[in-house]
Specification:
Layout: E1 5-6, E2 15-16, E3 21-25, H1 28-40, E4 46-50, E5 56-58, E6 61-63, H2 65-75, H3 92-99, H4 110-124, H5 129-139, E7 145-148, E8 155-160, E9 163-166, H6 167-173, E10 180-186, H7 197-202, E11 206-209, H8 214-225, E12 232-235, E13 238-239, E14 242-243, H9 248-254, H10 261-267, E15 274-278, E16 291-295, H11 302-318
Parallel strand pairs: 3-4, 3-11, 4-7, 11-12, 12-15, 15-16
Antiparallel strand pairs: 1-2, 5-6, 8-9, 8-10, 13-14
This protein binds ligand FO1.
Ligand FO1 is lined by residues 26-28, 54, 65-66, 68-69, 84-85, 106-108, 112, 168, 171-172.
Length: 319
């Protein structure tokens, strides 16, 4: 185990934090905290388990947006504006597809196409998604372990006032406009956790639910993992009743739930040992039953990501 000497911004007492962590992450927000944890914890003390419910076949390619967002972020290859796709990207391939009359609504950059082409080739060759992810992480010099939640297909289906939509169809093609009525995770009942996921959880000191969408990024992972008998900390993806990015607040509202950090804590109710909410919501802290950490959870820089990770690790140490 590694000891971590930290000196946080308020010059609190020096403290060492011995922690082996499994982080559950979906898209952009989750990837940022995973990156913060990866800046603080050595490779043997952090495993990131990633949602694959957003995966889909498009242009004949197998696309795994959350795995790519987490890996690109950990590798420092992610587009800093969007959080997804690659930095310094070009768009010649999708422009030619559009010229030829093909679908251009899902913005795939030229470097990103390389990832999807090679992943699709390997999967068709019989490799598992975990194996492909492991090999890609090596090439991208990602030392921490990144695992898909499962090697079996799980597909998030969004039930809306216009009927059922596949996740990317709802999220990207329809810009989240249809009103949400519920979610279904096709195949989740048959999906075993990816190899290594159960072992990582069994040897972890705590599980960190990153600030991803509870409905469509974290719930699929929790459904696949089933029981987790470890301390679990969640970081609220909702600040001041809104999300930094993505439709989580809109989904809560359309499901008749007041969007707030409280709603997120309620969403994970029986699971949580501790909950992290943003300073903007500090006035809510006496409404929570369990242990609470109030801190700045907005991550606009790599140092913000590392600082939130240190706060979370200290919080876990205090439980
Ligand atoms: N999100 C968008 O809003 N528009 C896009 O065109 C888009 C393309 C895209 C390509 C590759 C990739 O890995 C992610 C992409 N995303 C896009 C983000 C993605 O839809 C979401 O980040 C996740 O599915 C949910 O977090």
């Amino acid at each position: 185990m590694t000891s971590l000497k930290t000196k946080d911004k308020n010059h609190r007492q020096q403290s060492t934090v011995h922690r082996r962590i499994v982080a559950l992450a979906g898209g952009v927000g989750g990837a940022k905290l995973a990156h913060g944890l990866a800046q603080i914890l050595p490779p043997e003390d952090l495993t990131v388990i990633v949602n694959t419910g957003d995966d889909f076949e498009h242009l004949g390619l197998y696309i795994s947006p959350d795995l790519d967002t987490v890996c690109y972020t950990l590798a420092g290859l992610a587009n800093p504006e969007t959080g997804w796709g690659r930095v310094n990207e070009t768009w010649n391939t999708i422009a030619n597809i559009e010229k030829l009359g093909g679908p251009n609504w899902f913005r795939l950059g030229d470097q990103d196409f390389g990832t999807h082409l090679e992943r699709t080739r390997r999967l068709k060759d019989g490799q598992s998604l975990s194996q492909v992810t492991k090999d890609f992480c090596k090439v991208w010099d990602i030392k921490h372990t990144v695992l898909p939640m499962s090697d079996s297909p799980v597909r998030t289906i969004v039930d809306t006032d216009e009927g059922e939509l596949a996740f990317q169809e709802y999220f990207v093609h329809r810009h989240c406009e249809p009103r949400v009525k519920g979610f279904r995770f096709d195949g989740v009942e048959f999906a075993e956790p990816a190899i290594g996921a159960r072992e990582a959880i069994d040897s972890a000191d705590a599980i960190v639910i990153c600030p991803s969408n509870p409905w469509v990024s974290i719930d699929p992972i929790l459904r696949v993992l089933k029981k987790i008998d470890k301390p679990v900390i969640a970081v609220s993806p909702i600040i001041g009743g809104k999300t930094v990015k993505g439709p989580a607040a809109k989904m809560y509202a359309e499901l008749g739930i007041e969007p707030s950090a409280l709603a997120v804590a309620e969403h994970y109710r029986n699971l949580l040992t501790g909950f992290v909410l943003d300073s903007k919501d500090g006035q809510l802290s006496d409404k929570f039953k369990g242990k609470i950490l109030v801190t700045d959870t907005l991550m606009n820089s790599n140092t913000d990501r590392a600082r939130l990770a240190v706060d979370v690790l200290h919080f876990i140490g205090s439980l």
